[in-house]
Predict the 3D structure of the following.
Amino acid sequence: MKAFAELYLRLDATTSSNAKLLALREYFAQAPAQDAAWAVYFLAGGRPRQLVPTRVLRELATQLSGLPEWLFEESYQAVGDMAETISLLLPESEHATDEGLAHWVEQYLLPLRGQTPEALHERLPQLWAQLDRPSLMLCLKLITGSFRVGVSKLLVTRALAQLAELDAKRVAQRLVGYTDLSHRPSAASYLKLIAAESEQEHQERGGQPYPFFLAHALQAPSEEFQTLIGAPSQWQIEWKWDGIRAQVVKRDGQLWIWSRGEELITERFPELHSLTETLPDGVVLDGEILVWKPGNGADDVAVQPFALLQQRLGRKTLGKKLLADAPVVLQAYDLLEWQGEDWRSRPQHERRRQLEQLTEQYPLAPVLLSPLLHGQDWADLERQREASRSLGVEGMMLKHREALYGVGRTKDMGVWWKWKVDPFSVDAVLIYAQRGHGRRASLYSDYTFAVWDGPPGTAQRTLVPFAKAYSGLSDEEMRKVDAIVRKTTVETFGPVRSVTPTLVFELGFEGIALSKRHKSGIAVRFPRMLRWRQDKTVEQADDLAILQGLLG
Amino acid sequence: MDLVIARPEGLYCPPGTFYIDPWRPVARAVITHGHGDHSRPGNGHYLTAAPGAGVLRSRLGQDINLQTLPYGERLVHHGVTLSLHPAGHVLGSAQVRLEYQGEVWVASGDYKVEPDGTCAPFEPVRCHTFITESTFGLPIYRWPSQAEIFAQINDWWRGNVAQGKASVLFCYAFGKAQRILHGLDPSIGPILVHGAVEPLNRVYREAGIALPDTHYAGDFARNDPLLRQALIMAPPSAGGSSWMRRFGDYSDAFASGWMRLRGTRRRRGVDRGFVLSDHADWPGLLWAIEQTGAERVMVTHGSVNVLVRYLCEIGLDARGFVTEYGDEDDSASAEGQP
């Protein structure tokens, strides 16, 4: 535990990738395999489900620190992280445990889940008393599932690859699915990650998907495309679907479906289970899972808003009604494995041709072939792209015809561009503010925005909230807004401050839908601040009618 | 009778007709210490503790109308007995004790309870009403001992020397810088300072405070191999400026009480944060308040609401004073001074 806490401190104490890489290598070089196994799991983003209810943690922390509840809450609001707050408030312990990370996780932490509050009240203080402050904070972060330390999965991959003298791509491949909840890290699973290359590697891959290849955003104006990326004919162009990116793996008579977060989601999509029968063995498809309801009219759009898919993901059980209301398909756009052979190092156009043949050859009801788009030039394609919103897509994907299928967001093996349509935007008024988390701790950086409702110049005209956002401002702007929030506070409700409306922001968002949960009757997707409109007065902010108009 | 009230110009003593650390120009100002938010230019007459004279003159000008008073010595003005007592914050910092018709008030300005060797240590003064700051008025703020922090700073510096990297330490130029200089191990390498720091070092040395030798960073050529062993002290405002380029590959750190929180340190974007403050931490505030024996506490700048509520809950008569010191409320956003 102590060694991992020290690694955490070292990683946290530098912004240099090389220093982090060195710290990781040194840690892995000396860590026992069973500890290293869990270290990889946590560093690569693995999170066990919350082990102890937050309520119990709060109660214990106030009790042990002897502070009134309100003061604990004030402290939490200033720190912005539950684990860190508790570690700062508990009395310092002189002890330091000698037991390793694996022992702590397997023997002490995982067994906490499901215990009664009474049992936890007894158990947790015993555990905490064995930890010095850095280990305590780490332990709490593992308990609350909030462990993060500015290390990418890619960096962990590189550290392991350097240590084991392996190709980083090989390690990345072996790491796929490592952080899935169904997988329990062990000494054996760690040793497999760093083992020497073997002949059987490919045969032993079970239901493993390939690391996902990710696209880069293309932000230049289309007039520059010709110079920047050449003619459209060099590109395979498709719609950019707004669903769940997934790989469908069919091997040895079994089917696995993996999300981009490398979670196994096979059970969530029974519509695709027929592929166990219909797909040949040794096939891996890459595509997008979408809620799909073809209408009768020619103008009907089959793809349904992401919100519907999200609702479905939120459900524990998938009832008949839900499956009937929100049926899914896979829009397939890539073929990564064919007849058991890894096709990733074949060019895009070759993979596409084989994918087309595959979908013709086999009756794959729930799988659709993502159509290709063609244009004489980029201006022509831009015109086609204007239909994106009405077609329910986010824009276009440009995949180089010669691109190999890379690992992660890389460009060394060819490139994929996402050419998204501009977000929706409105000018909205900041009406509530709350302090943020992480590096925004203690700053009023999380805001609620409103637009006007009611006829201008009347008493009925009020600001109705419709979105919360915290990203998009520079540190400098955030500091300024923070100061204004503090000066214009009207009332404080717990952690939230209402302010005299003075600030207008251009708010961007990706989607908009009716919602019963919001006062304004509207919910927007991925709202963020595009610009601080210091040139606009509150009265010049937009009306609710504008948002309603965007609903289409 | 209230011996101190909050007026638009600053904290005012009605029977004495003078102000304490006013933020707008007034005829008579008693200055608790030389930080910019407590000592402003333009006042007709200044009174400050004798050890603070040098700082005040170097910051506000040699020609200010300045009267000084040794710690503990009494002075009577319009029937108010006034004396100044060490606040342990920076060189010359003082608490102002006021006595009038048997009533005693103490205005503490900014204070720190741990002695640091660069200024007279905080001295509790018994009073009926105590005016306290609340910069770090939350229980999450508990300072490690400064010996521990200096060991961390020296280790960090040593580690950088071993890697052939310059060590740039950002800290407030007045008080914090000299306190760190006092705690550094000068055998590790040369100590360089930014132009904003050196004048204050001079004031401290003239006051008899032992500081290790320092060199003006501007005297070194870019790529001078000596820079790779040096510790460079600079005010936070130098961060990200072109001045930094001369140091080549460097590690940077920031010394402040705000570094207690991971979020504030990450927002600074520095490699290391050292938890070192000129202000009292939560236990320090509570200890100082208790030591005064005061039944009434007026809380100024910082976590005013939190401290007021807490003190009321433990049975004191506590209220907030609105001032323009530091930042209002929990001022982590300012992060300027402490």
